[in-house]
Design goal:
Helix content is 8%, strand content 0%. The chain is largely without helices or strands. The radius of gyration is 16 Å and the shape is elongated.
């Protein structure tokens, strides 16, 4: 599906785009609040500066997507693939990133106030200057993540994680990219 068709359907009131192939779609600065993108392929998509508040991206593929400056307030990003995605200055306030894969993602200066990152895979991600205030990081993997200048006030972590007695078990995700399929 191309951007014009998606925007026409959205304007007509359609909000369900589950399992849709939107590989490398350009939706720069569009308003798509409330859309259901469950299991959609948005790999390589340009969603920078888009309004994606209250969207459902559960189990979607956003590998290498550009979400810089996007607003994702209250978005459902459970088990989403954000490997290598650019979320610089994205607003993820109160979003649900349970078991999200953020390996190598750029979240510099991102707002994660009150976000749920339970069991998220964040190894190698860049969170420089990010706001984690009141975020849930229980069971998340931040090994080799860049957290310099990040606001960690009132972050929720387990006592075992505070004392370093947690054994990390790597997360295994299986992602399907439909790009190039007919």
């Amino acid at each position: 599906m191309d951007a014009n068709k998606l925007l026409d359907l959205y304007a007509a009131g359609e909000r369900k785009f589950e399992q849709t192939n939107l590989h490398q779609i350009n939706l720069y600065a569009t308003d798509l609040s409330g859309v259901n993108f469950t299991e959609a392929d948005l790999s390589g998509a340009n969603l920078s500066h888009a309004n994606l508040n209250d969207c459902n991206f559960s189990r979607a593929n956003l590998t290498d997507a550009d979400l810089s400056g996007a607003s994702l307030i209250g978005a459902n990003l459970t088990e989403v693939n954000l490997i290598g995605a650019d979320l610089m200055k994205a607003n993820l306030k109160d979003s649900n990133l349970t078991r999200a894969d953020l390996r190598g993602a750029n979240l510099m200066l991102a707002n994660l106030l009150g976000a749920n990152l339970y069991e998220a895979e964040m190894s190698g991600a860049n969170f420089t200057g990010a706001n984690f205030k009141q975020a849930n990081l229980i069971g998340s993997n931040v090994i080799e993540a860049e957290l310099s200048s990040a606001n960690m006030v009132d972050v929720i972590i387990s006592e075992q994680e505070m004392t370093g007695t947690v054994m990390r078990i790597g997360l295994s995700h299986r992602w399907v990219t439909w790009a190039g399929c007919h």
